[in-house]
Amino acid sequence: MDILSFLQQVLGPYTRQKDEALFQCPFCHHSKKKLSVNLDSYKWKCWVCNAKGGHVIWLLKKLNVSKAQLQEARELFDDPHIKRYKETTAEVELFFPKEYKPLWVNQKTYPYLHALSYLKERGIRTEDILRYRIGYCEDGMYKNRVIIPSFDANNKLNYFIARSFYEDSYKYKNPPVSKNVVVFENLINWNEPVILVEGMFDAIALRRNAIPLLGKRLSTNVEYSLVSNGVKEVLIFLDEDARNEAIDIQHKISQYAIDAKIVLTEELDAADLGFENSWKMIEEAVDIDFKNYIHHKLAEL
What we know:
The chain is of the alpha+beta class. The chain has helices at residues 3-11, 56-62, 67-76, 110-121, 126-132, 200-206, 220-228, 243-254, 270-273, 275-283, 290-300; strands spanning 15-17, 20-23, 35-38, 44-46, 52-53, 100-102, 135-137, 145-151, 157-164, 194-197, 210-212, 233-239, 259-265, 286-287. It has a 5-stranded antiparallel β-sheet, with helices on one face. A 5-stranded mixed β-sheet has the order 11-10-12-13-14, sandwiched between helices. Strands 6-7-8-9 form a 4-stranded antiparallel β-sheet. A hairpin with a 2-residue loop joins strand 1 and strand 2 (20-23).
């Protein structure tokens, strides 16, 4: 397989213009082929959102291609390490997938019905679909996935998750942009206690003032927002497997004179526990003081 054929498998159809190949941009999803890959240097750039990089190998990494595909790419480029290329990806503006359809508009298709059925099983209500602008895709890169978007304080899209609503070994296929954002920032009241959870479904289950960490660690943007907005109280709602991370977050937040409490669930997360059970656990939250923190760290040695 040649390099262009490989890139077509990952990025889709291309148009050839002299020493460049033009693809649809996976960042801004512009309807025209605006992502340019130079076939001599393999530098890449989108002429709409300005995403760019020093070598296309970095683009493949950002698209989370499989290890096998990445190894194949390195063999095709005849460079097993690509160490001499510097990643220079610019901050890019995120757009909805062009195939995105809102779920509050009846489409009368099987994918639409399956998407609604999947969300209902996850405890998502009609009002949640409207509040969070949840949609889905029937085609394209995010085919057969529900799309849950996040917006910043200015109601600008800053992230989204794409969750398969069929049985799929690759459950999540999310945008190739940084997770260092404040998810659902436009819905947060910084004058009230803030709840930190792992994922978007957990935050939706709690219904108010919950920020998904998109993992189990505190990002710099969430940390900065808690401090700069003068938050007085934070609840860290993670599962038992994330005990170490929860205690680390609690200790870091407490250094800013923020009252931080930990809620650990034994097996189920907030999305599985549901609204009422989750809030019962929150009401029983206890402090982890500095002495316990030191004891925890010593136990790790």
